[in-house]
Give the backbone structure.
Amino acid sequence: MKSKRLFQIFVLLTLLFTPFGNEQFARASASSVDRLDLLPIQRNSPAFQDITQVPPIVYTVVNPLSVNVGEAAIATVNLNSVPADGYASIELTCSYDPGLLEASSITIANLFGEDPVVAINGPQDGRFIVAIAGSHGNKATSDGAVIAFNVRGLQAGQTALNCKARVSWTGSQLINIYSVPASVTILGDPLTPTIVPASCDKVDFVADISVPPGTVMSPGATFTKTWRLANVGSCTWTPSYQLVFFSGEQMGAVSSAQFTGYVAPGQIANFSLNMTAPSTPGSYRGYWMFKNANGTLFGAGSQANQPWFVDIVVSHASTLTPTFTNTPSVTPNEPTNSPTPSITPGGPTATPIPGVVYDFASQACAAVWYSGAGQLPCPGINGDSKGFVLKVDNPRLETGAIDTRPGLLTFPQNVQNGYIQGFYPPFHVQNGDHFRSMIGCEGGATSCYVAFRLDYQTGTEAIKTFWGPWLERYDGQNFSADVDLSPLAGKDVKFILTVLSAGVATGDYALWVGPVVSRTGTIATPTSTHFIGSPTPTLSATPGEPPVSTATPTSTPVESPTPAPEDYGTLTGQVLAGKLVTVSSYDANNTLVSAVEAQMDGSFNLIIPAGIYTISARAEGFLSAQGSGVVSAGNSSTMPTISLLAGDIDGNNVIDQFDALTIGMSYNMAVPAAADLNNDRTINVLDLELLAKNYRKTGPVTWQ
């Protein structure tokens, strides 16, 4: 009997930590995985009989457990011992060492039923949050996989990958459950790539002109790495060739850079990249290769498949930023007419606009661009499903007009809730500096619906949002942001331009037109002289507030002679929302007659002239309700008690993934207030759960 019990426990543990079987996944964000083979542990399995019930746990499985630098694995987060009552929602907070791993392509399973509501925050700085709530009353009532995501090795080492969970039964509180982390090992040097280059493309490594291996750097120090390489093949390297990042630590460099000249067979040339030392002490190495005009990688060695590298040691003991000679002496066997291309990120520099102290468009490729698919090239390729950024001259606006200022065309990764971010080099902010940009969708991109955000980072502190999110859909209007940066005065700030898809990113061509930092007293306010054509007026965007939908009724009451008191009647009722409710009455011409704020219990009392009115009830973050009210002189009538439906955060009378997106972007914050549906001053999965109950519903709700 004792041996039988031991065998049962062994079977239980085997089931608990072995991912096999078949679970269907639905895409909810960046993903290249459509279906994962997983086996949810069944609570009626024989292994569970006669054994003490295992408490609820969440555990992470990584397959494979070890990867080479540059290689990827799949991580799966699973729930076990789900109680019979089930969970209405779950919040997963996953963390890992960002110096060793990067996470992407988060995929949501169907554990919470069909069409779950999802909010995702991150990944960023080794952390991301996924909140999931079952829609239409669905719950997680069985064990199984909750999410899956990709992890890619960045540098040799070992890191824990832990996804902690909080769950909800009723929506009133979140309860922590025990978590079991996974351990991921990243092996040292990358595997030699399998490359079949054209026989004419071969490289010979000559020398490290700057930053020899083992150079000690201060955290965050900027430097220029220069390699001297020889063309030992039979093909000429042309400007169609690229220097590309292969694996390891990228150190803030661009992911690819076009050649700026020709290198004939037998010639030697210098290749340079601007880089930034990581902020954390340690040893770092990044591997680089060439890519020919056909997109084929090639490198050094007899098989032309060996990358070259940059190798540094980051130490707080180093206090001086090293300097290097940018004009090395000519190699004796180098022909005197040999070109010396300098591969410098950023492309040509635009003529600066007077008074502008930083131009984000002209410096687009000085930034490092990312999406959920990883680092992106700059400039990108229009149509790249991973996302792309392009500098555009004379951008076409939603109005059809052409703006003569340079702009940035940014397209998020083409998945559910895709995003794109550009991390710019540090900029020293002064008091009175302003961030200015017109934002909107590119002309013709009628399905565009995105959120713009200005994030920032100082030193090694966490990334924070300074302005936004600003939701923008294709509506024929332009919005101008003018954000005072004075709270950051005196700091060296890395600004981050962020665009997030409100749903699937198909058609999300998002424009930043004339994005600059201007200095008070040195730049005039932009005028319509920037346009070619007849643009519509632009609207000024207030930081932190989403655009407000225009209601059908007009909001300005028309003055009329005050009727005699005997012509008035009273309309009463109660509207339940848990937030401040405004009740308004409109006449047959949709003109506002009267509006009152309901009491704390939702009761209201309207005293208005006798007549028939359209009565509307509104609360921030809720679908509005609308019905007909009849008021007779000298009498009181009562509207039916009604409960408003939570979830319409963007105020467009539809509760959908766009509203969930706002919760994800503002997770664990208190603003925007419309997203704090339960009014507890924290935006999290409990608000998402309220939204999920009314998912896909539309308004205004009939009040009768």
